[in-house]
Structure formats: structure tokens, C-alpha cells
Amino acid sequence: MFLSKFKTVFLALSVTMMAVSLISFPQESVDASIRGLNMWWEIVFPSLLPFFIVSEMLIGFGVVKFIGVLLEPLMRPLFKVPGVGGFVWAMGMASGYPAGAKLTARLRQEGQLTRIEAERLVSFTNSSNPLFIFGAVSVGFFYHAQLGIILALAHYLGNISVGVIMRFYGKDDEKGNEQSQHKFSIKTALSALHRTRINDNRPIGKLLGDAVMSSIQTLLMIGGFIILFSVINKLLYHLQFTSFFAKIIEVILDVLHLPVMLSIPFISGLFEITLGSQMTSQVQEATLMQQTIITSFILAFSGFSVQAQVASILAQTDIRFQPFFFARVIHGILASCFAFLLWNPVYERFYNTEEPSNALPVSVFAEDSWVLQAYKILVDTGPLITIASLFVYTALYAKKLTGKL
């Protein structure tokens, strides 16, 4: 009873303090809102929308069930999740967070995952996509495309390690519902695909409309969280809360022999990964390896902004948020360790040369590569895609209200 009352008072005071802070720092709040909005409509919305829509279509047509049957012999022994987890894992890495959470929640709602399996799956299928790691962080912030190799290796190796660790989660809660091992069988997979398609008897037009509606609604929610936490991060800085917590982080950094100047970027990265990564790249007192270690933790932890998005998505199901948060902490620690361990054998050996033009044998990750060009195109065309999609969503929603859809 006491804890419940304390929680009520704490939440009420927190919201009141935020309201007062918004009034006290109006210009800073507006600037932070604009920054969050720009990131959402230039990058997040246009990059995630196609993946969300296609994912909904693949689920409706039974393709995900087909992939799940094929990948069952791999995913079940390795991560102790059904084969459909392979689809969520791949889409999560390709599109970035919080796609893994959305797809996991969707499959849980369809009954393709138990609650324990869903909690295992969501813990390692939310990750940063390669375009963000190479385009935004490595080139955009550090002006060093080769650094993306280390960041990506540390990030995804950490993700796989988290998946292996989380396979031991919830063993005592499972009540003998372990599914039998399946052998690789295309015939069985095709039968599952057909059954799923027949059970979902929506016409193609209805299925596409539902996919667009569901995807845009999720992205609107994501945009709200991005803007909110951008403002919160800025207000905490001006209220000196960031400086206060930075003093605590400085002690930890000093023990790890890292520059204490990284404390402020680290705290900012705990709330929002883009700002934290950018601030880390600007710390002149730290070496590139030290900046990479902190950035790896920030990318893996994914920030309270992304975690709030995931919590909102998981709240639509019975999937608990606590295992996901625990996995983010473990992922952050592991990614930092991998960045440190891989620095000498990978970066120092292959990429740290005095002749930057010949640093890489291929031009895939060079400064003028297709990765950077794709990122620039996304930034330039993103707002147009976002506006057009919102018009489509408005039209579909209007038809749904009038009973025509």
C-alpha cells in the first residue's frame, strides 16, 4: 500500500516538474521538439514504414509461418524460441528498433509464441540497423566509415550473445509446453503456409489496408516518444540533473580508466542514442577506441526513448518489460567488451593506416559508398515519404470511420 502511494506521489511530482520546466525553458523545449520531429520524419518514419507494412503482409499471407517451420531446427536449439523468431530477428536487424518488439507482439497475439518465448525473442531482436550504424554514427558523427565495422561487429555479436544467454530465462515457468523438434521439411513448411493463408480469409485489399493502418499508428506512437524524450533529455540538462548523475558515472569511468569527460555524453545516450552518440564523438579528450566503447554501449542499451516505445508496444500483450530491460543492460556491457576486444585484431590491424584512401580493399564502406549515399537519399526524401504516407493513412482512416473499409 505504501509503495503504491509513493509511486502515485512520485509520478505526480515528476509530471508537475516537467510541466514547470516546459514553462521555464520554452525555447529549449521547442528546439528539442523540433530536433526529435526532424529525426522522426526524415529518418525513422520512411525507413521503418516499408518494413512494417511488408511484415504485416508476410504474416497475413503465411510466409512467416513458412519461414518458422524451416528455421525451427536452428532457432529452437540455439535460442529456445520457435522458428518464426528467425524472421523477427532478421527483420529487426534490417529495419532497426523497435521493429523486433512490434513483430514479437504481433506473433504473440496470433498465438505463435508463448509468453516466455516472446520475452526471450524480444530481448535480442531489437537492434540498430546497419544504415544507422554506418551512415549516421560512423560517417555522420565520427567522419570515419571504417569505424562502422567495429561498431556493427560489437553490436550484433552482443545481440547474439544476449539471445544465447536468454535461452536459459524462464525455464522454471515453462510447464512442459516445449515443442518437439522439427526436421527441415519444405513440404511441411508449404502446408503451414497454405493453412495460415486459408485461416486468414481477408481479401488482399483489406489485408493491405490493415497493414498500412497498423504500421502508421505504431510509427505515430514512436514519433511521440522520440519527441518527448528529446525534450526530457534537454530539460534534465538545464535542470542540472544530467550533471548530478554524471558525477556518479565519472567514478565508474575512472575505475575503467576512461576519460570522465565521457560522462555527460553517456548520460545523454541513456535517454536518446542519437544525441549520446553525437556528443561522444565530440569529446576530444578521449581516444577513438574509448569513444567506440561508450558508443557501443549506447547503441546496445538503445536509450530510454526506444525502451519506452518497446514498453508501449509490449503493453498490448502479456509480454513483460523487465526481461527486455535486463537484456539491454547485458547487451550494452557485452557490446562494449566486444568493441574493446576487437579493436586491436580488427581495427588496428586492417584499418588504422596512414593512407586512408587504401584502408579498405573494397568501397562498400568508403566515405562515398552506396551506404552513405542511401543515407543521404533517405534524409532528402524522408519528409516527402512521411507526408504522403500520412495522407494515405488519413484517407484510409476516414473510409474506416464511414464503414467503407
From TrEMBL:
Sequence ranges assigned to domain Nucleoside transporter/FeoB GTPase Gate in this UniProt record: 44-140, 219-315
Superkingdom of origin organism: Bacteria
Annotated source species: Bacillus canaveralius
InterPro entries the record matches: Gate_dom, Spore_IM_YlbJ
Keyword entries, A-Z: Membrane, Transmembrane, Transmembrane helix
Protein name: Sporulation integral membrane protein YlbJ
Pfam families per record: Gate
Chain segments annotated as transmembrane: 48-71, 131-157, 216-236, 248-271, 291-313, 325-343, 377-398
